[in-house]
Amino acid sequence: MSLTGGERLGWRVERGALRARRLRWRPFSVAGTGSTNQLWRAEGACGEWLLKWYKYPQPGVHPEPEVAKFLQAQSFAGTPEFGARLDHFQNGDWQTAAFVQRWNNGNSVWDTVLGAMRARSVDQSCASDLGLSIGALHRVLASGGPETAFCVTPWTSLSHHDWVARVERGALDLYAALEGEPPQGVAAKLWESARAVWLKDAECWRGRIRALAELRVEGALSRVHGDLHLGQLLEQADVKSFQRFTVVDFEGEPSRSTAERRKPDLPLRDVAGMIRSFSYAAAVAGAPEAVAEAWSDAFLQGWCEQMSLPAGNWRGLLAGLVWEKAVYEALYELRHRPDWLWIPLRKLQDDRA
């Protein structure tokens, strides 16, 4: 495998720190990630690298290498170093085919939190440092100038309307999925519980969406991670500050187009993703939801030390983003991991009260 050459024969390379000579590439996989991309790992004189070959490229620059390059230009150390980006000209458009970044030997934060939750432990310092780390990331992502893809734009009434419409589309997609036949792997009792929550009690979630439309919030939009959870964070055990965390996989939600994933969004969306991830960890660990809530509270406290909260009913906005994420998760689990459907369903059931 070689990344040498320039813009020719429909290919072009944007170089970062990678020097492709004398690298030994081998296929690589991470058990349990369900990655749809082809992964390769390399070792050589210029260090260790991870190559991600995108299985389903779309027109335009992929957000992952775009964000990585910007963060490196801003001297943000909390993401792997940008190595190179490979683009392919096809069907009249350039599209990102592959991305190379520095290999990171950190430990999965999902494993760390899961272990603590199995012991019914709440590590306030770890959770707060996670919040500080993500808050620092958001500050840098909002630091681009007005002519860049990393500028800040206001959260307007139109922004709010578009968000509520997006929430409603997700709810209707879940409704349509539950109207059909149950996918293989869903227990009959769980399937009926999901249908009871979403089909028989549809007025409840419709009322929730109407309430979201009435929220009054003033905030700002900027680039965000877009699919943030504990599995997207690595930890360096020998570093003691919040800078021990590294954020990876800036691909955004895989069901959305490249253009959608590159749009500015509310940083609170990433906060909502972490809150739901703590809830997932508690569910897998068999811990009470109160443990997840304690982790979430400490995370939010740390995040607020770096970021300003939107003016107005920000708690209502955050609750709406968490609920939207749970709806997305329910649809995802139905399609990909039906035996995990009970985790987001628990959130959707609790929110009916």
Descriptive key words:
353 residues, alpha+beta, 6-stranded antiparallel β-sheet, 3-stranded antiparallel β-sheet, 11 helices, 17% strand, globular, disordered N terminus
Commentary on this structure:
Strands 1-5-6-4-3-2 form a six-stranded antiparallel β-sheet. The protein is an alpha+beta fold and 353 residues long. Residues 1-6 have low confidence and may be disordered. It is globular. The protein has helices at residues 63-73, 109-118, 124-141, 157-179, 188-200, 202-213, 258-261, 267-285, 289-304, 314-336, 342-350, and strands spanning 11-15, 24-28, 38-44, 47-53, 82-90, 93-102, 107-108, 153-154, 217-218, 220-221, 233-235, 245-247, 311-312. Helix 4 packs parallel to helix 10 (314-336) and helix 5 packs across helix 6 (202-213). 45% of the residues lie in helices and 17% in strands.
Q: How do the strands of the widest beta sheet line up side by side? A: 1-5-6-4-3-2
The radius of gyration computed from the alpha-carbon positions, rounded to a whole number of angstroms, is 21 Å
Secondary-structure-based class equals alpha+beta
Strand-and-helix sequence, N→C? EEEEHEEEHHEHHHEEEEHHHEHH
Fraction of residues in helix: 40-55%
Please outline the major beta sheet: 6 strands, antiparallel
Cα(first) to Cα(last) distance is 56 Å
